[in-house]
Amino acid sequence: MSPFEHGEVFVLDDGGEVDLDLGNYERFIDVTLTRDNNITTGKIYQSVIEKERKGDYLGKTVQVVPHVTDEIKQWIQSVSSVPVDGQTRPADVCVIELGGTVGDIESMPFIEALRQLSFSLGKENFCLIHVSLVPVLGVVGEQKTKPTQHSVRELRALGLTPDLLACRSAQPLIGSVKEKLSQFCHVPVENILNIHDVPNIWHVPLILRNQKAHEAIIKQLNLSGFARPPELRDWTEMAESYDNLKNSVKIALVGKYTNLTDSYLSVVKALLHASVACSLKPSIQWIAASDLEDATAINAPEAHTKAWETLKGSACILIPGGFGDRGISGMILAAKYARENKVPYLGICLGMQISVIEMSRHVLGLEDADSEEFNKDAPNRVVMYMPEVSKTHMGNTMRLGCRRTFFRKSDCLTSKLYGSPPHVDERHRHRYEVNPSFVPVLENAGLHFVGCDESGKRMEIVELQDHPFYVGVQFHPEFKSRPRRPSPPFSGLIMAATKHLGTNSNNSNGYVGASE
């Protein structure tokens, strides 16, 4: 999936490559989802075709209705019975998010399936919330309800009537606008929710709670006898404490897809979690890797100068994952700058491989050192294809999902950040790895491989000796970061950037001590 079209590809524990929305669900409600929680048109049609080939339809003509819609309903009902919060019993409520816009041809089978599902389940077991935008046009500043009226009319024509409206707006809706929406959309005023712009996204559950959204949903689903009041004291403290933070930390994010920041959404959230834990606001400095390259100094000197000024003005440097050779030279220069100037550095997936290539070229003197991804004929391929990976098919052929990483050195910095366990379980998404034949010579040069997989041959974590914080990880720690449980590598980066990374590893939380 192209990051420019889809944004970030979020990876689940079971290796599912899914939409970034599932990452938001995991972070907000702290659950562990599976690939089956992500329903796509392709999955549905593939399943229907496989059933037809096996003869499950007994030679009948396969149609959108009932065969495709039945498949969608069966998938939803199957997933709704599988717990995702660590409990053994099924969930009380299953949330279904239907993406896109009402009227899109792509979503028509799903809307029809939901219409059938609402009829079969009964009104008391189905609550439909319609999300719509209430824009403000021109200088008058009037909040316009027509887009919502028309989308609700379209939805009702398809057989679905909203029970609640969730209206996005820049400012809180005025009373007359709610009354107008209620009149034309056939929804009670108390069931019209307003999600207006807030200082930070953590306020959204709080404004929904204040508008009694939970009570409206509970009433619709007839759960009054079971539901408890929402416990959001800790969440409220977290949202309000962020608003009161005064100091920030500058983080240079050197990437390939910086024109669409959603491409690095989980990285941004992990930096937020780690910074807030250090009582700081993250100030991410977006740097296109190609702007750091020597060629840009000739073709676009202003962009080149600005990129280097931004990099040198940042407290730490982060290089996230990516694919392809564009911008690689710029990333190598950024890693070299971090190494030589002792600037805290975190390389994730591709970022770890960049640090290996940079060390090989500029410390070992292997000027032609490269990755097999960028140059298949390079004499010194310090990063190579994993043997088990397909070289002809790109889809679903990578090393994906949660894999175990064993620490080779128990006293290494990364181990201390994690609380000194024998191993950690993190999510992966890559098809290249460090060439094990170069590991000994790189370690002699000071780049220590402190983590590996169960075979002992696939390198997972690197650390540079005699450096305040120079860490590369082959996995993606950002996918497991949570608001109150920041990812240890990100915490280490922020603490090192603010010179609070201590040497005491005996803290009860398991993290390296932060000096006062």
Describe the structure.
Pfam families: CTP_synth_N, GATase. Catalyzes the ATP-dependent amination of UTP to CTP with either L-glutamine or ammonia as the source of nitrogen. Residues 1-223 form the CTP synthase N-terminal domain. Its EC number is 6.3.4.2. Residues 260-494 form the Glutamine amidotransferase domain. By secondary structure, this protein is an alpha/beta fold. Helices cover 36% and strands 18% of the residues. The protein is built from 18 helices and 19 strands. The protein has a nine-stranded mixed beta sheet, sandwiched between helices. Strands 3-6-7 form a three-stranded parallel beta sheet. It has a three-stranded mixed beta sheet with strand order 12-13-16, with helices on one face. Strand 6, helix 7 and strand 7 (192-196) form a beta-alpha-beta unit. The longest helix is centred in the N-terminal third of the chain and has 17 residues, at 64-80. It starts with a helix and ends in a 19-residue tail after the last helix.
Please, how many helices? 18
Protein structure class: alpha/beta
Helix content: 25-40%
Task: State the shape.
Answer: globular
Strand segment tally: 19
Roughly what is the average pLDDT, rounded to an integer? 91
**How does the major sheet shape up?**
9 strands, mixed
Nearest-angstrom radius of gyration? 26 Å
Q: Approximately what portion of the residues adopt beta-strand conformation? A: 15-25%
Identify the strand order in the major beta sheet. 9-8-10-11-19-18-17-14-15
Low-confidence regions: 503-516
Euclidean distance between termini CA atoms? 44 Å
